[in-house]
Amino acid sequence: MKAGGICFSISSSFVLSAFLLCSGLPSVQAGALGVHMYSFDGAGQTGSGPSGGGEQWVQDEKGWWYSEAGGKSWPASQWKEINGEWYYFGDDGYMHTGWLTDGGERYYLDSSTGAMLRNGETVIDGMRYSFDEHGVSKLVWAWKSPVVIPPEEEKGDLEKALDSMCDSVLSGIIREGMTDRQKLSAICSWIVSSFRYAGASATRDWVREAYEGLRRRHGDCYTYFAVSQALLTRAGFPSIEVIRYTDNGHYWNLTMVDGNWYHFDTTPRSWRRSFFLLTDREMAALSAAHGGCFEFDRSLYPPTP
User: Which residue spans within 120-212 are E strands per DSSP?
Assistant: First the structure.
């Protein structure tokens, strides 16, 4: 092999050794192809390759790349369509995931598969985006999104059990002819009168915590938030999780009534039992008077009246 390349030996137990022939070599990439490990120079050339001249995905310790011409080249700094899906490969040849700006447009490459999102909507980091047939994104909802409840046929046993518990509660407190505000008031009053603040939530899975909360009737602020979210959504009201940003130590809900969003916090305080349908301004005033207990990042949530 010419100077500046890589000299290597291969056995059935992969590469036994590799030696640099001179200093100043370009960066070296290594990929496992089948049962062999191959070393490539910075130009994407190798002194040996897998049998055959096909294309295949390859994963190494850095990520995924796409082998072409029997391992002698790979796509880099470009889009490539593979089996009907579009992928982007960076300067180093590795598959890109997450957000990508190209030609002034924003695209999203699935965090697991790397495939470009197209023809639909999805929530990413709490924001809702739509994607056209070319994968170009558009922000649909500029704030943290309401929790998405799966359709009945997609619910698991725990979700179905939680629904049953919520239906039992709601059937006893919701009456025909109630306004939406009256329904929300009934939900708030039931939680405040039926729960006590004690113990600590064991999970940040709101479905499981709501189930456990309804079963044991006590918990911390996350329990109150989760139970509120379960009852609100089951009663047909949207719910957004609000988190105190100073320490991530308090949770409550935003819900909508009469076309407007309001804060809905059922966790009791020594100085107040609940915080029912309050505005941002009211929450800010309470927070300022009580040690910053309701400090939250307003840019993440839809504004209240």
Answer: 120-124, 127-131, 137-141, 196-197
- Dihedral of the CA atoms 269, 275, 281, 287 (nearest 10)? 10
Q: What is the CA radius of gyration of the chain?
A: 28
DSSP letters along 169-219, please? HHHHH--TT--HHHHHHHHHHHHHHH-EE-S--S-S-HHHHHHHHHHH-EE
Closest CA to 211 of 148, 164, 154: 164
pTM of the predicted model, to two decimals? 0.61
Task: Please give the distance of CA 196 from its chain centroid, rounded to a whole number.
Answer: 31
The neighbouring-strand residues paired with 106 are 101
Task: For residues 58 and 29, give the distance between their C-alpha atoms in angstroms, rounded to a whole number.
Answer: 12
Give the tens place of pLDDT for each residue, 211-221.
999 999 999 99
d(CA 19, CA 258): 72
Largest CA distance in the chain: 87
Using one digit for the tens of pLDDT, what is the confidence trace for 54-90? 799 999 999 999 999 888 899 999 999 999 999 999 9
Separation CA 39–CA 35 (nearest Å): 14
d(CA 187, CA 166): 10
Taking the C-alpha atoms of residue 299 and residue 286, their distance in angstroms, rounded to an integer, is: 19
Phi and psi of 198, rounded to 5°?
A: -165, 145
Amino acid at 10: I
φ/ψ (deg, to 5) at 58: -135, 135
Task: Please name which of 120, 123, 99, 158 lies closest in space to residue 241, comparing C-alpha atoms.
Answer: 123
Q: Confirm if 97 and 106 have CB atoms less than 8 A apart.
A: no
The tokens 């379960």 sit on which residue? Answer: 230
How many CB atoms neighbour CB 105 within 10 A? Answer: 13
Structure tokens at 110: 């699935």
